[in-house]
Amino acid sequence: VQLQASGGGLVQAGGSLRLSCAASGNNFNPYVMGWYRQFPGKQRELVAGITSSGSTNYADFVRGRFTISRDNPGNTVTVYLQMNSLTPEDTAVYYCNTKPPGHFWGQGTQVTVSS
């Protein structure tokens, strides 16, 4: 199983980033997929989720700013997170996984928002 997140970086407050996650090594098509984030010393928290048919849900702290989407070519799933109106409080490492999450976590991608 591979969960390869990418697209993070350093951005100024108010800016945007688009994260991508390639999920492979298993048939992820039927699964609800999610983006999570983790602050230093804290547990990972769910940011957004998307079903195989495209229904979405969001944590209150990102609703209206972030948009999750997915592509399902074959057994590989690519999940995206468009992040707009970023604030320094969004600084974290972002991961994708199934929802609820499996035991394996990929490396994640660092998002840093400067004020």
Protein model, in words:
- It is a single chain.
- With 115 residues, the chain is mainly β.
- 0% of the residues lie in helices and 50% in strands.
- The chain contains no helices and ten strands.
- The chain has strands spanning 2-6, 9-12, 17-24, 33-38, 45-50, 56-58, 66-71, 77-83, 92-98, 109-114.
- The chain has a six-stranded mixed β-sheet, with no helix packed on it. A four-stranded antiparallel β-sheet has the order 1-3-8-7, with no helix packed on it.
- Strand 5 (45-50) and strand 6 (56-58) form a beta hairpin.
- The radius of gyration is 13 Å and the shape is globular.
Short characterization:
Helices cover 0% and strands 50% of the residues. The protein is built from no helices and 10 strands.
Arithmetic mean of pLDDT: 95
Order of helices and strands: EEEEEEEEEE
Number of helix segments? Answer: 0
Say how many strands there are. Answer: 10
* Biggest sheet record: 6 strands, mixed
The SS-based structural class is mainly beta
The low-confidence parts are none
Whole-number radius of gyration? 13 Å
> Spatial order of the strands in the main sheet?
2-10-9-4-5-6
Q: Please tell me what the overall shape is.
A: globular
The amount of beta strand, in percent, is over 45%
Write the SSE topology.
Layout: E1 2-6, E2 9-12, E3 17-24, E4 33-38, E5 45-50, E6 56-58, E7 66-71, E8 77-83, E9 92-98, E10 109-114
Parallel strand pairs: 2-10
Antiparallel strand pairs: 1-3, 3-8, 4-5, 4-9, 5-6, 7-8, 9-10
Features:
single chain, mainly beta, 6-stranded mixed beta sheet, 4-stranded antiparallel beta sheet
